[in-house]
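Problem 3 from the worked examples.
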Amino acid sequence: MRTVAVLDYGMGNLRSVEKAFEHVGVRATVTADHDAVRAADGVVLPGVGAFPKAMERVRSLELDELLRERRSAGTPIIGLCLGMQLLFESSAELGGDEGIGLLEGTVEALAAPGLKVPHIGWNHVAWRRESELAAGLPDPCAFYHVHSFVARPARGEDVVGVATYGTELASVVARPPVYGTQFHPEKSGPDGLRLLSSFASFCVPAAA
């Protein structure tokens, strides 16, 4: 059975993510133990809250270095919601902070004139390019978003799917073995589960 490590740094709806992976036949372990993460076939970086506080906790547990190590080893990694933003180089939130830097780009405040911020609710994602992460999903596809900041990837080819809320925003990114969704796939019904199942398919056990 494929295994994923759901990184526990104290911020994120960990149980919901764990249950979603279990629903698609993947054994998920919520952990911050480095050896347990190294033993997993894939790594999930969830996140809810503010970027600087999250990075403070990520750094205190040395999970930033661990994620860079796992990326270099070719282990599939996916960031969910705030977790996707943490994959980038920096954020302007609350005075700014550096991110993990697995993807080039910045995180900026969501520009949505006349609309409520944070952006909360279902929104359609249109696919910019083909990606195995989006295999079998309709175009466009509705997912559940909750955020006040957005990633601005420096490389356009990293953007797989976009949503529109006041302005167009990157909602799905991929540069294998690194992936990210601005929305919460674990809260996005059957299509969210399908996306997580597609990610799990990249997580091939070493013995296979």
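Problem 4, a separate protein:
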Amino acid sequence: MEKLKCGVVGLGRIGWCSHCKEIDGRDDTELICVIDPVAERREEAIKTFKTRAFPTMEEAIKNFHLDLLVIASPSNFHFEQTIKALNSGINVLVEKPMAATLEEADEMIATSKKKGKVLAVNQKHRFMAYYIQLREILDSGILGKVYRILYRSYSFSRRNDWQSLKRMGGGTLSNTGPHGVDMLLGILGGKAELLFADLREIATVGDAEDVAILLFKGENNELVEFELNSAAAFPVATWYIMGDCGTLTYQNESFQIKYFDPEKLMPLAVNDSLAVEGRTYDNQDRIPWQEKVISLDKSKALNLYDNLVAVIRGQEKLRVPLEDVREQIRLIEKAKRFPVFINLPDKSGNYQ
């Protein structure tokens, strides 16, 4: 079968390492051009990938008939470049965040439908082994009905690149947040409601948040706490999930589960007597706990490009539906506009 003719916009960390190398190394895709305003990066791409390079999208689109254009430019350019590519009749894979606002996301989705072109977002964590394995464990029902989910990412980093600046669409909620929110939506069935959001600038050198704490409620009343913290010195379990029959944690490539079989519980009825027999708090109930540790099975990982190529050829549906990405953008946008409960001083000591 003929290879898909692909181009990549942006030769930075993600564009170069995640997309150019992947496209160049596949049997079903061909990297026929790259776009970047920096001449040195264009020259490097020409030598490394034996491809054509242009400073603008317009020149690339004029010179080639592209089947797929990957938008891996800084976040502020995603909307404009995606719309331009779709209107030129090109399928698009855009990096996260898909858009800065829900209005932009809706226009991108509407344009893809109008033009009959595929629009996909690089929500790569849904393809990773640990997330696929986590979903399998939850789907097994071993925890019973899940009522509480904590997702936490802790590190300490004094970030000073463009993703630390508000004017460039930076901040941890737009940079790292789309991955976590997307994974949570996958577990929650694609819908959630934001209850609380607190965004702070702690260790960052820029002016965008590096700590974000969000509280969601799922459609089945799951209470979800989502925290991205780049000013925390000690790591914690990434996932902590509680059900009415057990609890799961995930850390250091290992799932630890403590659970019980509800059918093996002893019969227990309410005792409404005000005089507890024996004056003891022990009602003799013994939970038949079981424990297991499951190591990460890295072979479960899937490849985003396998899915994307199949979608473009009409053989599959997107593993990450655009409806889920739209909901993610809605929640992140709402979190950024959430009322401030705590009046914190800025870096000059002045209260905002």
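Solution to problem 4. The chain has a mean pLDDT of 93. Residues 102 and 330 are 6 Å apart (CA to CA).
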